[in-house]
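Narrative summary of target 7.
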Amino acid sequence: MTPKRTLAVLATLGLTIAVAPAGAQEAAAAPQDLPSPQSIIERYVEAVGGEKAIRATEGIHQVGTMEMPAMGMSAELEIYLAPPNKMLMKMVLPQVGAINTGFNGEIGWIENPMTGPMLMEGEQLEQAIEQADFYSDLNYSSRYPSMETVGIVEFAGEQAYEVALVDQDGDQTTEYFSVDSGLKVGFEAEQASEMGTVLVVTELRDWKEVDGRMVPATTLAKMMGQEMSMKIDTISFEAIAPEVFEVPASIKTLAEKVKESGAGG
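Modeled conformation, tokenized:
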């Protein structure tokens, strides 16, 4: 999961998030000894399978569970991704029902039994577009005009390169790449909530090989007093049927109403 895909799960649930404690501890590293962000990212791309394998992938389908033990919450989780920019995330919460979030290349939408159908707009839509970027691991340079290797720190129990990334909107994400394996071990990113802008620290764990690709089986988002884990049980790299990303009827109706309202205004 990319940083914003992880944050999208939290946002979809409408959770109020407390500020997370710092996830990394500083370790000594002279600036002249640090590799460039570009070389760290290139090594990461090779570690997960290489650019050729990523571009040859026709689709991704993940099935697993999302849990928040402190809240007694558990949900079935299913994620579909297709190039270049299609995404569908489905969660089923007991006593709530299905919460679906999608982007079909043009329209971002959410179906939530608690709020009804919603069209994404503004920053929420921008985040959906980034979440749906199938080639996000290959697009660091275009996504982040500013990239800097800050140092070597201890993160999630291992030595990692700390890379500060700033996107075109000025939003900052800090990512951590294992010095040993080159794999991404986690990231820190800010999330808007009812309490204002807060920090979520996420760890990527249990990397395993599936069909020549390396994937994290567990994503753990840490928050003050609580944690959210996403565990992927199965993952396949096969083409996804186009109808999977078709906009639901309720969203189509809502989009038509918005269009008519805009035309009438």
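Residues 249-264 form the longest helix (16 residues).
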